[in-house]
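Proteins fold reproducibly. Take a sample protein:
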Amino acid sequence: MEDKLRRSGRVRRLTMEGQEYEMERCSKRLNAAVTKVNLLLESITISISNGTKDVGSVRREYGTWLKAYEQSLVVQEEYQAHMDGDGKVREDENSGEANEQYRKFKAKVERWLLDNEKQEPMGLDSDQDEHHVSASQSGSRGSGSSGGSSRLSEMMVKAEQEKAEIMAKTAALKERREMEQAKVDLTMKEEELELKVQLAVAEAKAKVLENFGSAASHYSRVSSRSRRSLTQKPKLAELDKHAKPETAANVTDASATSIAEVARELKKPQAEIRKFSGSPLDYRKFLRQFNSRITAYTDNDDERLCFLEQYTTDEARRIVQGYSHLAGSVGYKAALQELETRYGDPEVIGSAYVQKVLRWPSIKPDNPKALDEYGVKSCH
């Protein structure tokens, strides 16, 4: 009819009432189409959420939804054709939100079909393709704009499919990278643990060897002293003209005595030598420990000077180190003399005790424990 009016040179224009009628008619059609699309969307969503295994049923229902969605696009274009500029803008904004929801639904369903189908990745059978094509062709014959909408819909489906594939590959790549990193971390932890075990074994061996060496050295010193005592006894007997000649029994007793002395020395607990830092109050105690544990078991001053430097700290060590460049026979005696002058003088020691007593905290009359402790310290 419109073609005839155009050929005749007359253009038919609808009245205000006619436009309102057409808009109302298109609005009803659009509401019906949107309602159908939403009902199908809800049905498919429920089927997928319930964990259905009927892929064919979902695929057919999805094909029906696609046709209903395309039909709603056609009706929507016809409805917008009767609107003015402001009305079209508002309708575009409203339809944009709905179309965004439909695009997300498409991506979700097609991803589900890809995950649950083995041979048909698109999830559409041949009959649905034919219906889809025929619906597109009929829509293109009915209106030129419907063909564009159909092609746009197909492009959107393909784009969503490609997006889903890329996202799946990205997730798989990320998971693979995390697994490889976990393997590397596990390997490094195993190597670190192995090194710690090796280090602990080496330290244990070194400690055993150190203890064995100290015990062997102690035993050799005790043995040498015992041998010297045995060799000196015959000489003393020769000097005494009235001494009786030693018999085999006497020699045997002397050997047994020496062995007993060695055993006693080995069983004796090792006294700890506390390092001397320079306090006059601790000097005599340190000197007694050093003479009994070091001087008595060393044969030369070089070794004694080394031990003296080892068992001193702070100011006392600096004094000993000042003589370490000298020969042992000279440096050891000079270092001992300097320590004696600085820390062994009775006046220095007495002054130190007086200062300690003066710094002692005040003692209350009802505190016998503190008074007893003060008395013990004063006796020192």
